[in-house]
Q: What sequence folds into this?
């Protein structure tokens, strides 16, 4: 991210979500606001998607990760969770499609410049900022996330569901694990969904590996390079050491099997992009209050 400017990768991710609505009819992930929030940028994103058919797989991965995350969030809400955190919210529209339920609150934490850009786009599109949405400005690499959230009104003694999509590749590994550690220490407990990529050297599919290298070159040129790749087994081990006791990890093949079972050309299981859901124990309040 360039200093003082909104995230370009957040704009690209929003473009994938918008293009999925236009080109696949929201087959995997229906987002009625994806095109509206982009405004004039939506037409360009859709045109680029039409002209780059080789990027369809990435577009579908973005759609599947959002579907998985939002399905998980809605289940948490149905189970009684009333505190949602969208970490690195970018141009995500979940909070604006969510029906208000009692004391439900959605906290959107993001870099100040990206957050300003989003709110300007919401205003330009005539989309109101719902009263259940709270904005918290924060730089992941500097300052204390928990302090920023509590100052913004989030109660760490209440169970929190976290959507954290399209962020970890751009952070340092230290920042990723520090963030997970912070969630594990929430006295009220936490459930988090995020995506990550395995190291390119572990990807056996040459086409997938080449695509990853090409994408890495593009984002580096934009000023937002990939900085973090995670080994799946190591991630799970370290997550359990942090007291995450429930881990559901889907690679591209598992995502396709769940959300696109009739797709003819299916990816092979193995290294590449993943989406993972992990949760602390439901009874963490009593045991974790003194941590």
A:
């Amino acid at each position: 991210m360039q200093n003082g400017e909104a995230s370009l990768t957040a704009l690209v991710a929003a473009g994938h979500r918008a293009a999925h609505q236009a080109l696949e009819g929201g087959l995997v992930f229906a987002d009625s606001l994806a095109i509206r929030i982009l405004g004039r940028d939506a037409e360009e994103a859709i045109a680029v998607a039409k002209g780059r058919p080789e990027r369809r797989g990435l577009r579908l991965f973005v759609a599947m990760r959002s579907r998985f995350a939002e399905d998980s969030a809605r289940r948490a809400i149905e189970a009684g969770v009333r505190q949602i955190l969208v970490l690195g919210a970018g141009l995500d529209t979940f909070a604006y499609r969510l029906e208000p339920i009692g004391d439900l609150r959605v906290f959107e934490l993001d870099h100040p410049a990206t957050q300003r850009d989003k709110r300007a786009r919401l205003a330009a599109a005539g989309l109101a900022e719902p009263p259940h949405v709270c904005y918290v400005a924060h730089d992941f690499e500097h300052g204390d996330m928990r302090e920023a959230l509590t100052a913004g009104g989030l109660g760490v003694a209440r169970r929190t569901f976290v959507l954290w999509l399209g962020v970890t590749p751009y952070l340092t590994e230290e920042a990723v694990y520090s963030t997970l550690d912070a969630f594990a220490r929430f006295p009220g407990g936490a459930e988090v969904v995020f995506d990550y990529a395995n190291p390119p050297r572990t990807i056996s599919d040459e086409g997938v590996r080449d695509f990853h290298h090409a994408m890495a070159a593009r984002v580096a040129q934009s000023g937002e390079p990939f900085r973090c790749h995670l080994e799946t087994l190591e991630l799970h081990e370290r997550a359990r050491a942090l007291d995450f006791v429930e881990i559901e990890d889907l690679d591209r093949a598992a995502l396709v099997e769940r959300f696109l079972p009739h797709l003819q050309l299916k990816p092979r299981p193995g290294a590449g992009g993943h989406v993972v859901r992990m949760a602390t124990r439901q009874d963490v309040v009593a045991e974790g209050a003194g941590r």
About this structure: The mean pLDDT is 91. The chain is about 45% helix and 15% strand. Strands lie at 83-87, 105-110, 133-137, 160-164, 190-197, 246-251, 273-279.
